[in-house]
């Protein structure tokens, strides 16, 4: 086996030094009836070329060569080459959590830089080293808000990503955290303020909204914060499209921001790995879950970084920890850090502006096709929009697929009231030609 | 540097490391690391489109050129220790070689670019990868059903305990308690608490195993499950596992296995055969996906048929026409624990590892992991105190008892190991061993590397006798010396400020 650095003779010699006759003697504490005396029934050992061929064949089974208008929480932005070349350095790729600070300064400094960038982008004071993804990050934020306020309910909105809400539901049910979900205003696609206000009670720990929301619409965060805070609830803002922060006002009125950083240079990879991250106010530092890197000095007064405040964490606190999270998404956070250093202050804004321009052109072009109209047109939005068509989206999408285009995501599954609505996304990588071709197909489709 | 060693340090010599400031300290307005393509649609006015939701002030991100970014992160990388540099014997973490073909195949375009909401007929390749990995993991564990959705080991524990809860609820009572041995990972009790259970600790017996009599006395109709790591955190296989399962099952309780130590069992024994009802795996431990400085991981949960109805949605199924499909219609499901289908990129890597090994390679891997741990145990047992002499599998836990008499503790010995060119072992865990030194070499070490490690440990033991100060002030060879963590915690600095 090519990964195993031992010759048969060495194995024999080592067994002799240990003082056992054969390898099975070392497994003798496993009762005989539980010892596997046959080969595992899995594919036989492959050469490296066969492994590569296996996965190339799998890749070929997926659709290739399509122009895609899918977004809905996973976004197709360009990934600068330097990201992949840097994260493949073994010192980043094959190291463990940086508990031994003296030989982990590279990872620790990079986390510290990541935390700083997240604070800059979100307008928060502190950020953690990462969470699994935007969905679990949102759920952990709610649990954090319950700890801070001593209250036990959460009010959320149907325009938070449906899968985030499902994960929240799973987490909340065992935490004694009732979840109230309010609707959106049918005209604006924004949270319905009156219903939201009515749903918040003296027992509400947090209000959880997403902005831009699942329809791509940007919420009125200052107004939502005002009604949440008026009743003593915290405001959690979930951001599924991190690039939006290049042009969208950061949710500075929020108490906790839960960000999904996939857009920062991470491949869609059929749903993961991605990178959640929580940002909050300094006063909540002892309630934030997950790892934190902090700056300090060594014995000689030299600047260095360490994982800190670990008394919040499970390996110290056990059942009294703020969360059971242990392994996070460190390497993905590093990818985001490199991405953000490539684009920087001006690039992140330009990138977001390009996405906005493409989406604006796409929305205008597609809404002008026969039998189509755009919903929620009066509200500000980032790079996603909802298109309502006379034709059933299934019919429409199969026509688009024939033209090698993956159209908008049908929304009926989560929003039956929207009927023939689809959610479209355009990023800086979407081309005018792709948009015009999609419009041509839409114009041809017969209901 | 060499004069600071009592013997010879065959593994290391000194080497320059470059200083590097923070990104923000290197930034200058107008520097660029990117160039966007020309816009092929009309420009837009952000203010006109977004109104008062437009961002007023740009985020103060660093402005750098590409070469500076490459040098910055390359320099940072040289400050890290890594498996690629040498032995990383962190007990319980299974720091094994991360094969490069895994990285390559995860980046193949059709695999890396697949959107999770692709129409199913355009995602069959990704779904086949999931399907084959599920089959392999079920065969390896001897279980009946599996979900790959959990993003890490602790997340797998969370999912597994939710299955336990849902199972009991379906019988009319979720029950109240989860029993956790005192040797368990901290995530176990934390998970039980997050799932709304009361944690009951059970002490280990003199052999470092679960005290079966104590367990029998503790388990009742209010016990939901025992969370057991097997082999345990001291590397010992619970020989009375059948009896343990029987005690639990007799009262309707379930046996949860923390699969952190599966590297000792793959191809040699299957949890499904010895009474486990539900368990999680760590693809980033046993199945070679890279730890990446702390993640991403992946924590699949496998269970027996009785728990299958409760698995998170969606569940992968094969239709009668042979195509794979996601089934969301599962009324008894515990719900979703993560968005989409889990850390898919890790599934690709784990499957590549399994295919590269095959049944014979996986068995040999396990055997070599156990051989290496026992070799180290044999070579070091006269030098360091071995509190539990029970035979061990993939790891060995010594204690600092002898060296502590000179004021040198496990954490100090670990820091000194850095000077000899090794990553420290796991310190101060498990909690049942005071001053624990938990060593897991994995199968990835050659005899030569193991012998160097033994040499280093022997020299450090000698130093503890002859010159303890050398150890107490270690490491001596690193860019920075020991960090002032107390000051850091008192006034946390968690971000850079100008």
The outline of chain B comes out as: globular
Number of helices of chain A: 13
Radius of gyration of chain A: 25 Å
Largest sheet of chain A: 7 strands, mixed
Q: Regions of chain B with pLDDT < 50 over 5+ consecutive residues?
A: none
Task: State the total count of DSSP E strands of chain A.
Answer: 15
* Overall mean pLDDT of chain A: 96
What is the count of structural domains of chain B?
2
How many structural domains of chain A? Answer: 2
Name of the CATH superfamily of the largest domain in chain A: Type I PLP-dependent aspartate aminotransferase-like (Major domain)
Walk me through the topology.
The complex is a heterodimer of chains A (447) and B (498).
Chain A: H1 8-18, H2 48-61, E1 67-68, H3 81-87, H4 90-93, H5 105-122, E2 126-127, H6 134-149, E3 153-157, H7 162-173, E4 179-182, H8 193-199, E5 204-210, H9 221-230, E6 234-239, E7 256-260, E8 276-280, E9 293-297, E10 303-307, H10 314-317, H11 330-367, E11 372-374, E12 384-389, H12 393-402, E13 405-406, E14 409-410, E15 421-425, H13 432-444
Helix pairs in contact in A: 3-11, 5-11, 6-7, 11-13
Chain B: H1 23-26, H2 46-50, H3 66-77, H4 100-106, H5 109-112, H6 124-141, E1 145-147, H7 153-170, E2 177-181, H8 187-194, E3 198-202, H9 212-218, E4 223-229, H10 241-250, E5 254-258, E6 278-280, E7 301-303, E8 315-318, E9 324-327, H11 344-380, E10 396-399, H12 401-404, H13 410-419, E11 426-427, E12 436-439, H14 447-466, H15 468-472, H16 485-490
Parallel strand pairs in B: 2-3, 2-4, 4-5, 5-6
Antiparallel strand pairs in B: 1-7, 6-7, 8-9, 10-12, 11-12
Helix pairs in contact in B: 4-11, 6-11, 7-8, 11-14
């Amino acid at each position: 086996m090519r990964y195993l650095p031992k010759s048969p003779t060495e194995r024999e010699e080592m067994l002799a030094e240990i003082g056992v006759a054969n390898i099975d003697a070392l497994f003798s504490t496993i009762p005989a009836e539980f010892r596997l005396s046959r080969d595992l029934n899995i594919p036989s050992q492959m050469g490296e070329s066969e492994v590569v061929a296996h996965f190339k064949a799998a890749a070929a089974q997926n659709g290739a060569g399509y122009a895609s208008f899918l977004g809905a929480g996973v976004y197709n932005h360009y990934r600068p080459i330097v990201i992949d070349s840097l994260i493949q350095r073994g010192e980043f790729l094959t190291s463990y959590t940086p508990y031994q600070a003296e030989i982990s300064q590279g990872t620790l400094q990079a986390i510290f830089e990541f935390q700083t960038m997240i604070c800059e982008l979100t307008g928060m004071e502190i950020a953690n080293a990462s969470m699994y993804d935007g969905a679990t990050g949102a759920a952990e934020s709610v649990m954090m808000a319950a700890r801070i306020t001593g209250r036990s309910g959460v009010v959320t909105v149907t325009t938070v990503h449906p899968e985030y809400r499902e994960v929240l539901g799973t987490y909340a049910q065992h935490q004694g955290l009732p979840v109230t979900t309010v609707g959106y205003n049918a005209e604006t696609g924004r949270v319905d303020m009156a219903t939201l206000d009515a749903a918040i009670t003296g027992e509400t720990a947090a209000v959880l909204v997403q902005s831009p929301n699942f329809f791509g619409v940007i919420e009125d965060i200052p107004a939502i914060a005002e009604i949440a805070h008026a009743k003593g609830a915290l405001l959690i803002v979930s951001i599924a499209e991190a690039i939006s922060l290049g042009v969208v006002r950061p949710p500075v009125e929020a108490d906790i921001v839960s960000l999904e950083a996939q857009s920062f240079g991470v491949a869609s990879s059929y749903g993961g790995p991605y990178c959640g991250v929580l940002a909050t106010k300094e006063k909540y530092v002892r309630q934030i879950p997950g790892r934190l890197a902090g700056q300090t000095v060594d014995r000689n007064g030299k600047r260095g970084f360490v994982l800190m405040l670990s008394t919040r964490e499970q390996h110290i606190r056990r059942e009294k920890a703020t969360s059971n999270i242990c392994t996070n998404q460190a390497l993905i956070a590093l990818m985001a850090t490199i991405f953000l250093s490539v684009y920087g202050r001006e690039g992140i804004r330009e990138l977001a502006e390009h996405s906005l321009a493409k989406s604006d052109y796409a929305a205008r072009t597609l809404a002008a096709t026969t039998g189509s109209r755009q919903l929620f047109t009066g509200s500000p939005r980032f790079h996603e929009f909802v298109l309502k068509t006379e034709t059933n989206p299934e019919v429409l999408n199969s026509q688009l697929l024939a033209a090698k285009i993956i159209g908008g995501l049908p929304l009926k599954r989560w929003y039956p009231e929207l009927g023939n609505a689809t959610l479209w996304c355009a990023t800086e990588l979407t081309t005018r030609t792709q948009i015009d071709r999609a419009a041509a197909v839409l114009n041809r489709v017969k209901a | 540097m060499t004069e600071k060693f009592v013997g010879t340090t065959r593994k290391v010599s000194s080497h320059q490391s470059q200083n590097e400031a923070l990104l923000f300290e290197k930034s200058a307005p107008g520097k660029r690391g990117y160039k966007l393509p020309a816009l092929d649609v009309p420009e837009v006015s952000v203010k006109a489109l977004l109104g008062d939701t437009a961002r007023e002030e740009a985020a103060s991100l660093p402005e750098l050129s590409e070469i500076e970014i490459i040098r910055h992160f390359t320099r940072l990388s040289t400050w890290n220790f890594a498996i690629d540099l040498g032995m990383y014997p962190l007990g319980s973490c299974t720091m094994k070689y991360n094969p490069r073909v895994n990285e390559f195949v995860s980046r193949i375009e059709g695999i890396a670019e697949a959107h999770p909401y692709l129409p199913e007929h355009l995602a069959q390749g990704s779904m086949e990868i999931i399907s084959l990995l599920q089959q392999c993991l079920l065969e390896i564990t001897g279980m009946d059903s599996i979900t790959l959705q959990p993003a890490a080991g602790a997340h797998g524990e969370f999912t597994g305990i939710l299955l336990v809860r849902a199972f009991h609820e379906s019988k009319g009572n979720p029950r109240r308690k989860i029993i956790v041995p005192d040797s368990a990972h901290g995530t176990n009790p934390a998970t039980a608490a997050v799932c709304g259970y009361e944690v009951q600790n059970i002490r280990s017996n003199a052999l470092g195993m679960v005290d079966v009599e104590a367990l029998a006395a503790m388990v009742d109709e209010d016990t939901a499950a025992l969370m057991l790591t097997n082999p345990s955190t001291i590397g010992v296989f619970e020989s009375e596992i059948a009896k343990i399962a029987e005690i639990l099952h007799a009262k309707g309780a379930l046996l949860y296995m923390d699969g952190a130590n599966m590297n000792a069992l793959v191809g040699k024994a299957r949890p499904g055969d010895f009474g486990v009802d539900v368990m999680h795996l760590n693809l980033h431990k046993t199945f070679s996906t890279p730890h990446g400085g702390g993640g991403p991981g992946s924590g699949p949960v496998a269970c027996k048929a009785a728990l299958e109805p409760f698995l998170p949605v969606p569940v992968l199924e094969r239709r009668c026409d042979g195509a794979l499909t996601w089934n969301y219609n599962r009324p008894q499901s515990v719900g979703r624990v993560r968005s989409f289908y889990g850390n898919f990129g890790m599934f690709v890597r784990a499957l590549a590892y399994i295919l590269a090994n095959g049944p014979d390679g996986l068995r040999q891997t396990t055997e070599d992991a156990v051989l290496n741990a026992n070799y180290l145990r044999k070579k070091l047992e006269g030098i360091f105190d071995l509190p539990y002499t029970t035979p061990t599998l993939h790891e060995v836990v010594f204690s600092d008892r002898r060296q502590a008499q000179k004021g040198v503790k496990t954490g100090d010995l670990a820091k000194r190991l850095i000077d000899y060119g090794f990553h420290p072992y796991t310190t101060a865990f498990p909690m049942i061993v005071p001053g624990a030194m938990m060593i897991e070499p994995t199968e990835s070490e050659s005899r030569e590397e193991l012998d160097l490690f033994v040499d280093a440990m022997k020299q450090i033991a000698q130093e503890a006798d002859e010159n303890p100060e050398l150890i107490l002030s270690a490491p001596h060879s690193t860019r920075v010396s020991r960090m002032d963590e107390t000051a850091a915690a008192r006034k946390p600095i968690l971000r850079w400020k100008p």
